[in-house]
Structures
1.
Amino acid sequence: MTRIDPIPTNLSPDFLLRSLGITEPRDIDVEAIAYYVGVRIKRRCLKCCEAMITGRGNKGIISVVPGGMPQRERFSIAHELGHWAFHRGVTVACRSTDIGKFSKTNQVERAADQYAADLLMPWPLFKAECREHRRLDLKALKAVSAAFNTSQTATLIRMIDSDVYPTGIMICHGIGGRKWHQSARGIPGYWFPKADLHSESFAFDLLHNPDSRDEGFPRKIDADAWFDNWAAGQYQITEQSFRVPGEGVITILNLDPKMVR
Ligand SMILES: [Zn+2]
């Protein structure tokens, strides 16, 4: 096909979505957006990375490893478009540990992740969807990630960052303990979750027992199960944990509103 329109030079997610007249989450077709900016997608085996972008001038090629979850693949493509927008001229090869982790130390990867989130889950549409779900729980997460066709991890990070759930924290644990966590903006830093899961917690069982299933509904628990803070014993919070293949177990906490004031 011969391209007639000039390739847009402004690659900001907001500009691209407006240029393409996208007003619904289901219309965010990341391959069509890539094509629009002169980038083709190739699915091929890559030696030591999950996705990469090469190219020069206005033509690029994103290579992605085939056979992954569709939501993961969409995020990887959007992440590579982020490199195209910010780091063009550099060949970037991204390992699975570089994509979707919102690295606090690697600014290049973090910028690409932020771009991907802004493209796939633009704030106005995303916040509108979040407001349909009063409480932050697994049911809401499943609904929002289905609406945007994004992974549960990427969607939950965005929900925590949305300011719609001011008492929300997500914590990811692996076999070795806490891997990372994300708190809503207004939560004071002294509500910093413990490194280790309590051996009687639901999350611990989920992590170590392959037969256990995701927690069906949020449960009340004393805050000192999750925090060492001197004041934790005064409060009750809710917890709900679910398994994420390849990642571990993620727990959604909702703090008592009084903890956030
Ligand atoms: Zn990358």
Note: The chain has a mean pLDDT of 92.
2.
Amino acid sequence: MADVPSWTWLEGWPALDFVNTVIRRGWQEVELIRTPADLDSWLDAAALPASRPEQVTESDVRDFLALRDPALRLLRAASGHGKWDASDAGVLNEALAAAPEVLAIGDGPGLAEARPVGSPEPFTLLLARLAGEVRDVLVSAPSELALCDAPGCGQLFFRRRPNQAWCGTPCGNRARVDRHHRKGPADA
Ligand SMILES: [Zn+2]
């Protein structure tokens, strides 16, 4: 059945919720945003840096994936998995430039407010802000950024303690069981 995903693993960080839309089933990577219905369910579940558009189309799915793929590669590279490709950064920079914003004075002292220049489409603004969230993680390059290299996961996460290898205990358990099975009984 082609049910929409449940998104239970999303953790409320827009940059990570954005790229954790590819998941491993076993060691196989699976794309979770295949249809407008998938994207719609993700928009309801994820931490978003802008309000979601009411409806999304096939073309929005394509635009989403065209930004998500390079964002995923860059964040993986920053976590020590795979190569940094300047053309990926170029794609994110283009998304930022597609909906430029000014930091305006807000409703009182100490308050600022990002305001788009002109009137970008809601989905264009959302993608630009997601690119901005990814940029902020890449620029600060937190040592907490890590990839959970377990079967059935492969998610990017922020470590809550130094040397944390897995995003959660179930992943650590699955990885240990998998390692045991791969070794086989002969050299266990
Ligand atoms: Zn995990």
Note: The chain has a mean pLDDT of 93.
